[in-house]
Amino acid sequence: MKALMKVAKGYGNIEIREVEIPEIIRDDDVLIKVKAAGVCGTDIHIYHDKFTSYPPVIMGHEFSGIVVETGKSVRKWNKGDRVVGEPHTMACGVCNLCRQGKVQICAEKRSPGWGINGAFTDYLIMPEKLLHKVPDILSDDVAALAEPMAIVTHQVLERGRVEPQDFVAVIGAGPIGLLSAFAAKEGGASKVAVLGLSCDRELRFKVAEKLGIDYTINVQEENALDRIMALTGGKGADLVVEASGAEAGINTAMDVVKKCGRITAVGVSGKERIGFQWDKAINKVCDIFFNLSSSYISWDRGLSIMANSKVDLSPIITHKELIDDWQQAFENIQNGRAVKVMFIPASEI
Ligand SMILES: [Zn+2]
Ligand SMILES: [Zn+2]
Question: I need a labelling partner for 89 at 20 to 30 A (CA). Which of 22, 150, 182, 256 fits?
């Protein structure tokens, strides 16, 4: 089978290689036929060598698929089951964090796509305990949004605690920003605004509108603080989701949050240090939540939200490609011409 691989450390070093279909080795292994696999910002960081990887490794950690074979001890899954999987492979299970259920931040964790072989191919192996059932109503493509959906369910709903009546401002209009806005609406927010740039107008803001997000704000054309104040009766946003990772965005979060409000940090800056309005945070007495990845609970919750929502999430998926076209796909993501790209195995087209 063909696989898109990071073949060596360093900038680039990504290519398509012919590899064997993986075999069940451990008793709890499940062999999954990939149906769709989403390209994530992490994959772009791996290209630029800004995210640790252990090459040679098949990329891709966001997937949906179907079970084709199970190891001896697998009880929960059968051939034909539609599944998605938490990328928390190789978490040790015995450290203090794992014992608290926080496997996503175990030091031993190595996820599919950068630590072990992932989903930008036809088949992958996952341990049974990390799989979740795909609700029948979700298409394979939309189901492959389960991983970013779990992230926003954890970081925006569980950690950021969206409450009824909240005005939520989301900074950043990429796939995670848009899913955060969707999650906030589903979580009971009264109004949600997505803040972005002029380059987001053509595509990302239009997707936001299709998802029923109340407001899109182009911060290069209007003053974000003035607009949020006008929309909230001079109070500020109850919850700000910082999904840009940009220094300017992080400081805008500080500007637009209300006194005693909450900021949940979703975006990664990619820098060692950034300028931050420390005293403003103190004067506003705000809570800031830092987050990494998704929790166990957030997976079934996120899938439940996706299955029960009246909103169709498919507009987030702007491109379906073969892995052969990966270069164009990565480029489109980097310059904002795509929101979410799904790689579909050639055998599924
Ligand atoms: Zn991802
Ligand atoms: Zn551990």
Answer: 182
